[in-house]
Amino acid sequence: MRQSKHSSCTTILVGKDASYDGSTIIARNEDAGVAVNPKKFVVVQPTQQPKHYQSKLTEFSIKLPDHPSRYTAVPDATSEKGIWGEAGVNANNVAMSATETITTNPRVLGADPFVKNGLGEEDLLTITLPYIESARQGVKRVGSLLTKYGTYEANGIIFSDVNEIWYLETAGGHHWAAQRIPDNAYVIAPNQTGIQEIDFADSAHFMYSSDLREFVTKNHLNLSDHFNFREIFGSDTQLDHHYNTPRAWYGQRYFNPEATNELTPMSANLPFICHANRKITLEDLKFVLSSHYQDTPYDPFKPGVDFKKVPFRPIGFNRNQELSMIQLRPYVPSRYSAIQWLAFAANPFNELVPFFTNVEETPVGYRNTTKIVDSQNAYWVNRLISLVAADHYHEIMEKVEAYQEKLMAYGHQRVAHVDQKVAELSATKLSTALQAANEKTANHAIKMTRKLLTTILTETSNGVAGSFDRAHY
């Protein structure tokens, strides 16, 4: 089994009737295997899209369809190890986030082994998002690719449009299933197979490999009298109990404290489809995707706790690289309804910034990331803050939280302001106006973030090891 270098993400999906404003919202932390893996935010034009795609990680290659759509993406800063496009919105206002690395079990892999030169996270956004016109169509395209080429890893793949959210999970090398998230529900996916009961008679809410039932029966994979995808294709291991399920437990505890009193971080029976006790906001999602078990004994930042000995993997931690929260709004014209809220580096210390996706180019400070540290760049200034903040958490978090509240308020203000300004613009002028608005938003966000970096560097530098105060001698 090849392990993806982006192998520890956390996903939250919110149906349109569960969100605060009627939007579909998909959000996913991209977490790398190392703390520093620079990312950039770009627009890929049809002329930039390859006609023939070749993976860098494997020998997988594919001829791509003609007439791709323009789309946004959050690829690695440099492409020598592949694109890793991760999350974006295309010109049809269809969003995709790929992938949530998930788990499986040896019996499944014995029956349908991973494919050495199949497709994987590195490839999926690039070979899918430019060619789909709905979330449902995204499921069908990826499903057909999995059936034909296979995959070398287990993944969860998210699609959304203004009406629907679909979550697809792979099963072995070639099999898969997908569920439409109910409009009034939310889902937290923490690197584990999540889909539970499949209703094979309900094509409105489930899609799957054409031979899925036959495959399970032939290989004696189902240990019960019902078809629970998680139980058949997933895992329940010690790693799950410490690395995966605690994240779902904490998120569900936040949204449904009344329903999780009897559950623990190691509970193996957490539900996939959940219903919050209130409407869910962007701020709720950011809190959970930044969380580190606050107000529990498992918080690595709790005074007196040795962070190397905490038993459970947090959601917000040093290996977060980017968070894309894609909001598709039903109450404004479709030509400016899609917003990709973006945050770079470790989520406990960053904040979301909104970008309209119907543009020809992204802001300079977000698209020009290189592997060289640059405090003018959005990824790097946030990475520098996260490094200082983690070692001085209790000294500077009050200032970080004030910055986060102020920047998020600014983001909401910008969205409302831009909505109003572009409402009457013609199609030819709209994209230019949105692009200029994004640039202004980005410049302000980077300026605020650099100011925070200056403040915390100034305040924490005086007491570092090696300092000397002559008055003490």
Automatic annotation (TrEMBL):
Coiled-coil zones: none
Q: What is its EC number?
A: 3.4.-.-
**Pfam families cross-referenced by the UniProt entry:** Peptidase_C69 (PF03577)
Question: What does the record give as the reaction this protein catalyses?
Answer: an L-aminoacyl-L-amino acid + H2O = 2 an L-alpha-amino acid
Entry similarity comment:
Belongs to the peptidase C69 family.
Query: What are the GO MF terms of this UniProt record?
Result: dipeptidase activity
Domain of life from the UniProt record: Bacteria
Q: By what name is this protein known?
A: Dipeptidase
Keyword set for this entry? Dipeptidase, Hydrolase, Protease
NCBIfam families reported in the protein's UniProt record: C69_fam_dipept
- For whether the record's keyword set contains Secreted, the answer is no
Q: Which organism is it from?
A: Lentilactobacillus raoultii
